[in-house]
Every structure is written in structure tokens, then in C-alpha cells.
Amino acid sequence: MPIYKTITIKPKTHLAIWHIDEQLYELAQKVILSPYCQEKFDAMGSLIHKKGFLSIRHLLEHFGYSDQDLDYDGKGKPHLTDGNFISISHSFQYTGLIISDQPVGIDIEKQRHKIRKIASKFTPVNKYDHIKDERELMRKLTVVWCAKESTYKLYGKKGLFFLRDMDVDDFQLNDRSTTVRVLNQEDQPEYKIDFLEFDGFTCAYTY
Q: How many domains, in total, are found in the chain?
């Protein structure tokens, strides 16, 4: 069972990351999918997506759940049938989930230089003009994306735009945390974001 990392954030808030290095048939062993999830799985054309889908079921088992305990709303957002909250993410050979008694969000992304090409779509890039090191800039922009994506998953309301409606406080990579402010909304909430880097990937989560 290649669980890469587990974090107990609070007594009822837990995170786990899975490193996918199995064959598909190995991941499929002992996994029983609901009819809805089986249909989703069968429709997937990508092998890595199928592996990610099944590895999430193993992470669920680690926390005492099965696929039968997972439900999806009309927007495709996952929910647990016992009332706890869950958020799921998958990027290449890593998957992750966070489970809590309160709303949560998680995102995992591979660190890639091409993020610079799309950065203007999700953050004011002039905030990072002072960063001259290419790798540092890539890492920082990946954290910003993950922070906004995890906030979007937690906030759960339509019409939230990454560039216009979310602002990430400046941070240093060794801070391992930052804050996201949701703008242009009536409640104007703030969320603390924790993040970690591993094996060329970034994971950010909020609760």
C-alpha cells in the first residue's frame, strides 16, 4: 500500500497522499464500485485517470470508508454519506484526499514551467516580477494555483473566478502557509492555506 504521506491536521481532520506505482489490475483488487462510479470509471479513456480513481478508493479504505460511502452532487462534487466532508485531487502519479467534520479543500499539481504561460489567467503576474529564478517562480506560481483551487473546492459556490475573486497573500516558499481572501462576495471570507512540496509536486489544503 504505497501511501506516501498522512497528516493529522486536527483530531477530526486527516489528509493522505498516495503514490501510484501499481498496475491497474493491482489497484482494482478488492475495490467494489457503486454503479454510478463504475460508469464513471468505464468512461475514462486514460490509464492514469483510471489508476488515480482506484487509488482514491484505497485512500478511502485507509480512513475506514468504501466507495459505497461516497456520493456526488449535481456538480460532481464528492460527499460522504455520514455527513463528514471530503475533497479529492489527482495529478499524474499522485492522488490525495482530505476528510474532516468541516468543509475542506485539497489540490495536488505537478510543478511544470508551462504554468508561466497560463499564470495571467489566475493571478496578477506583476506580483512576482521580482522573482528572477525560473524554478522558484514555477514553484511559487504552482502554490498560488493550488491555494486557489483548494479554496474553490471548499467554498463551493458558483461564479467564483480565480483571477478576479481570489487573492493570495504573499509568502515565502519555506513559510509552508499563506492566506486566500475571497473577494467580491458578500461574506468576504479568508482561508488559511497550508502547502507542502515533494518529488516535483505541490499539495495545498485548507479547512
A: 2
Global pTM?
A: 0.95
Domain span holding position 181: 107-206
Spacing of C-alpha 31 from chain mean position: 22
Percentage of the residues of the chain whose pLDDT score is greater than 90: 91
Q: How many CB atoms lie within 10 A of CB 185?
A: 14
- Given a contact cutoff of 8 angstroms between Cβ atoms, the answer to whether 53 and 41 are in contact is yes
| Same-domain check for residues 56 and 111 | no
CA dihedral angle for residue 97, residue 101, residue 102, residue 103, rounded to 10 degrees = 30
Q: Concatenated DSSP letters for 59-123?
A: HHHHTT--GGGEEE-TT--EEETTS-EEEEEEETTEEEEEEESS--EEEEEE--TTHHHHGGGTS
Minimum mean pLDDT range among 22-26, 61-65, 120-124, 156-160:
156-160
Tens-digit pLDDT profile for residues 178-192: 999 999 877 789 999
| 27 and 95 both lie in a single domain | yes
Phi, psi of 95 (to 5 degrees): -130, 155
Q: Which residue has the cell 513559510?
A: 175
Residue the block writes with cell 489566475: 122
What 3-state class would DSSP assign to 46? coil
Place of cell 486557489: 148
